[in-house]
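#dry-run=false #mode=assembly
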Amino acid sequence: MLNELTITAGPAELAAEKPITVAILAMGGQGGGVLADWIVALAEQQGWVAQSTSVPGVAQRTGATIYYLELIKARPGIRPVLALMPTPGDVDLVVAAELMEAGRSVLRGLVTPDRTLLIASTHRSYAVGEKEKPGNGIGNPLVVVDATEFAAKKTIAFDMETLATRNGSVVSASLFGAVAASGRLPFDKAAFEATIKAGGKGIEPSLKAFNAAYDRTLKGANDTLSDKPVKRLDPLPASAGHPRLDALLQRIRTEFPPEAQAMLYAGVKKLTDFQDVAYAGAYLDRLGALLRADVAAGGGAHGHAFTVEAAKYLAIAMAYDDVIRVADLKIRGSRFERVRREVGAKADQLVYTTEFMHPRMEEVCGTLPKGLGQWIEDRPALFQWFDRRVNKGRRVRTGTLGWFMSLYALSSLKGLRPRSLRHAREVAHWEAWLAIALDTLPRNYDLAVEVIACRRLVKGYSDTHARGLSKFDRVLSSLPLLVTREDGAAWLRRLRQAALLDENGDALNGALATVATL
Amino acid sequence: MAERSFAREVEDLKLGAGEIFSGEGILAITKALLQSGVSYVGGYQGSPISHLMDVLADARDVMEDLGVHFETSASEAAAAAMLSASVMYPVRGAVTWKSTAGTNVASDALSNLASGGVTGGALIIIGEDYGEGSSIMQERSHAFAMKSQMWLLTPRPNLTSIVDAVEKGFELSEASNTPVMLQVGIRSCHVHGQFEAKDNRRPEFTLREALENPRRDVGRIVLPPASFNHEKEKLEQRWPAAVDYVKSAKLNEFFGPESGDVGIILQGGIYNGAMRALQQLGLADIYGNCRVPLYVMNVSYPMIDDEVIAFAAGKKAVLMVEEGAPEYIEHTLHTLFRRRDIQTRVSGKDVLPRGGEYTAPVLAKGFAAFFDAHAPALLGNRPPVPDPSEVLADARVKALAEVVPPRPAGFCTGCPERPIFAAMKLVEKELGPHHVAADIGCHLFSILPPFNIGGTTMGYGLGPASASAFNVEADKRAISVMGDGGFWHNGLATSVGNAVFNKQDGVTLIVDNFYSAATGGQDIMSSRAQNPRRKTNNSIVQAVKGIGATWVRQIDRTYDVAKMRDTLREALTSPEKGPKIIVASSECMLNKQRRVKPLFAKAVKEGKRMVRERFGVDEDVCTGDHACIRLSGCPSLSVKHTDDPLKDDPVAAIDNSCVGCGNCGEVSEAAVLCPSFYRADIIHNPTRWDLLLHRVRGAVIGWLQARRQRQRLVFAD
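#status=ok
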């Protein structure tokens, strides 16, 4: 077989040269291959020998995949023997096209403090396992930051995805820019740019993204990530420009402790929008009572945590999603604008939306005045007869006059809402919930706060909503066991977290079993 | 039309003598075939050799100039059978497929081919889908070479060696009248490198000449008594002939010092990794210099006894480096040494792992153990080998395991198979879980979250057959899934025919996405595209009816989740016995976008009125329960945190990669999810009528919105 090695002699002196080793971790279709090809072309153009390998297989579809390259200066008459896969602990440059892939590279041992420069885009592309959780399943980015900071010799990390998109390109171009700026490859900027230009497709945007990333990298500082979503808690304004609104503000200011005011303001904002000023007033009345109980239970010492938590979750409970609410939200001018923004419509383009609604007789009865709604529900045959006519998917073209009018009319039923069957049911539910909390409050303050927070489990529509309610009930069913315990609050928090782990509440059942053995 | 176009790469196939070819391993093999004067090529696509099929399909002009016939075989069996052209006629033929999966399918033809032997060179290029990136069972093709007596080439993983193996492979085949298998690993297929090209060669003897001057020889046909002679011939003539050729052509290579206390015997494919490991132990350098004698088997079967014995002579021990289980070559080595009473110790899987990929770290560890036992001096002052274990042991890194999510391959954005499994989940909610027999193809991603559907997978086109035992009285029926690829590969006869004949009372779901999608979007029998060189547009429904299926339902838009769900329910509950076949058809979105996007852009450029659809979520309506995601898993349907302090959990969000397939809307409708989804129709180049209508609507709607806004007393946002 043609032997491409000119040296096969024995114990001749061994050469000391080593190749530059590069690993690229990306998701299928994310342009990792393009980046690898660029680096190979660049190296070969600069008189280096470059070998790249990959394991596409079906990973070309969304799965995590890895590309591996080795680069070494060519020596006349000799071909180097290059490896086809990375050796953990022996990689000079790791490029990760997404934050968790950076984490994966560390887990695989490809990133080591003695040699590895890690270049990572900090944007997230959530995995199914993170997205499908009924609660918040998003992985904590700080864990990745801690690991990479420790494992890498140096880390260059910022959101290269957004930067690329802003320049009309894709992440591979900005990653290439970061690689160029890092100086880890012994080629100058011009050579990198020449490679892109030689590539053919989308040269201009690629170069823009490349240069933007190049400059951003030279700035040095990495993006700082946070595991806490940024929530907007506005301080109480001096005035809202209308006496009736100002009256609400005044009440918050005078009747409630400072630590609760921001949340109360958020609640009042939501409820005036949901119903009206009077409704928001009723909210403040209810919270006033809760605050008194809080104070009586020595809430001062706890920073009135009970009131703050109640301010949040009562607002959510009172702003329940009914057909009136949905109709109201769908027809707003602001919403029309937001949709245009979200779909990136240009000024000369028209945008029409189609809503996917599936009203059932339950919703209809819920909207009817309490008596009537109840009367129909008590007559299954009649209910079914209606349901057969109501219960079907409807494609609502909100931008057309007919449909807009219907939704507009529906949303004007707001006035009837306080007397509707649905409202009566919601009131009953939140009063029962608050009663439990108030009953717990004097006996176990922290536990009472957790009871309030359990309202988080009630969300969604139809089956999902029903499942939420049952989880809520099952979690609270453990109260008798917990109320006397020091760590009762911690246990209830654990139960709530378990309930948010899976759809059917299997994790919750496990947790409840544990609690039963306490 | 394959997913990736090789129009540019095809140019490389025209390179002449002395020019440098620079590209992927799989393309180098294609070029090597043309340099070898091959007459015909066939095969079945599949990673890692899909691109070989794709590039040949794109290279039709080059092929025609050279008079090479290229066939897109219906299966690996068809491809293997194709090689019978080389039995009687001096024509060189090559076929290719993914192994061992494909070799399993092909082995009937291969056994017959190998028994009768060949006149013209017959080369079987197998992409050994083993180790990281593999999508199949971890086995060795080596066994097939042994049982049917075909020679197995395992060249070193660089383009020059691989190309050389192709050319020499044909000569070996002809010199020994034996089919030759050429094995390339996943990474070798995708390795980028260079080699010096030769001119392409026209076949000396054409298929036309063969057809017009037919020959026959009963002695070549696998029937007694010839079959008994074949066995004799194999062992007494073809084997020695092969050994002679391998020796004279120096197919196997020796590296390192002439002599030494110990030596390493390895398969060519492992060479680069082994050299890296030796480098880490301070026993080799990047240019192939080595302090240990190496015997590289570019021919893994047969073993060349004299070469091995000469190599072992005067050595205390040799290490046999052989990837995968079982260790056939090591066994042969032991037998040989016992028979010849050679005292050299044979080491192998005693110091190396019995299974799994032989990566550099694995090899370095094994080598060190071997040297420690037999030549510790070699390890000298033992330079430190790369070792991340300290890093991996750190708590901060260990914590990653909890956070870094698994990210297996899954359905693409807008995949038409997603709504099918969403519908299955909805039916499951009504009728409870069922036994689901899965198959091979993209649809197998249904076994992953969020769908978690599918119990077993038994092979390509075998889904329904693998459920045939459940053809008994029960309150539930088995559901089996099969793709269009598997259906035409052998599902029609083996699964559907079997079900019809045995009156299998189950549900068969055939996923028809117009391509062999999982392997890169190649055309198949039922592809809807017009392919001038192939007869496409053959109906699956007609086919199953043709072999006697009576309960057949065709769904022409899989995105119609409600219809999908109702049809499945009907199939599961229908009183009718026998197979109930649902053909669910919608074009593979990956290929559709590749086809449609340019057309759309062009039309918009030309000022034509075009409507782009995409989906969105109203975040104030979404409560963040993610029920929609549990019925989708679409990459473009994700989550995001809002700044609303009253929302704890992230809400659903759809990004701009959405292709508007419709699944989200259909699912939220069928499953009665929240009304937060909307479809936005974006009208490019609206007509005058559009604009007028929009102005009128805008006026009325705008007035009403303003009116409502005035009535509303709210805090400024």
